[in-house]
């Protein structure tokens, strides 16, 4: 018979079954891996594509004799306008000061547009090249919109509702299109002809991401990551539609130009 204190009784825990995730397919693919920018290489590549496409819009408005400083500052404002305005609203550091990769990507884009301007023509002529650049561009926009929407949701205190509703949506929208309003001397000129496509897509994306992450944070596994993928998919598809990349090429033969045949006037001679 053994005497003394007995050792602790080891109780084996019952096996824990894996939680079924019916929406796991949203993240289990290479598209999600790309738009979430899980590697630095993907992020830097998308940054260059983002700044390059902004440069295509900005450099068209420059005069040939515009100075270097004017071009570079305008390009920087167009690329990081939302990243400047929203941090000011939330009392944080603008992205141009906090992320060193942005100035590097902006400078690379400036050099490409200055010394290889033919790339802008290639973008207009090649549908494949345009689709790739838009993919890079919209991936960064989705990252920025979801980042500032989430940051505003955690910074702004709730008032009438259980969570802040309009503040994060407004911040996310500005984050995705703030460059259109900089420099500030433009005023509301970008809205004179109606709501621009980037403003509309950013508003829809910010609204969806904010409500999705606030209402389904406990029900959906990896809610924020899946919300980012869905927003990126929305941005890319909408941009492709606006760029005409989904329109089928016309197979109708061109019509021959119509030529009008003028009848010569008939002269009637009088005979006596």
Automatic annotation (TrEMBL):
Keywords: Membrane, Transmembrane, Transmembrane helix. It comes from the Eukaryota. Residues 251-272 are annotated as: Disordered. The chain crosses the membrane at residues 68-89, 140-159, 165-184, 196-217, 229-248. Residues 255-272 have a biased composition (Basic and acidic residues). This is Uncharacterized protein. It comes from Pseudo-nitzschia multistriata.
């Amino acid at each position: 018979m053994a005497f003394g204190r007995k050792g602790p009784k080891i109780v084996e825990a019952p096996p824990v079954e894996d939680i079924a995730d019916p929406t796991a397919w949203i993240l289990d693919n290479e598209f999600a891996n790309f738009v979430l920018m899980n590697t630095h290489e993907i992020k830097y590549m998308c940054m260059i594509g983002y700044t390059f496409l902004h440069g295509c819009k900005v450099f068209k408005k420059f005069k040939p004799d515009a100075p270097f400083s004017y071009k570079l500052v305008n390009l920087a404002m167009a690329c990081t306008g939302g990243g400047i305005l929203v941090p000011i609203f939330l009392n944080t550091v603008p992205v141009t000061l906090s992320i060193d990769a942005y100035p590097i990507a902006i400078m690379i884009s400036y050099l490409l547009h200055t010394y290889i301007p033919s790339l802008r023509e290639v973008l207009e002529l090649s549908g494949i090249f345009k689709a790739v650049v838009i993919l890079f561009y919209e991936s960064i926009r989705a990252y920025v919109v979801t980042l500032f929407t989430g940051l505003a949701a955690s910074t702004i205190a709730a008032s009438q509702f259980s969570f802040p509703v309009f503040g994060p949506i407004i911040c996310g929208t500005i984050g995705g299109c703030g460059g259109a309003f900089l420099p500030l001397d433009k005023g509301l000129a970008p809205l004179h002809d109606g709501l621009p496509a980037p403003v509309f897509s950013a508003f829809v994306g910010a609204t969806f991401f904010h409500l999705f992450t606030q209402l389904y944070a406990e029900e959906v596994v990896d809610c924020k990551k899946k919300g980012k993928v869905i927003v990126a998919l929305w941005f890319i598809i909408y941009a492709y539609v606006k760029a005409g990349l989904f329109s089928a090429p016309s197979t109708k033969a061109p019509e021959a130009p119509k030529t009008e045949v003028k009848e010569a006037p008939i002269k009637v001679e009088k005979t006596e």
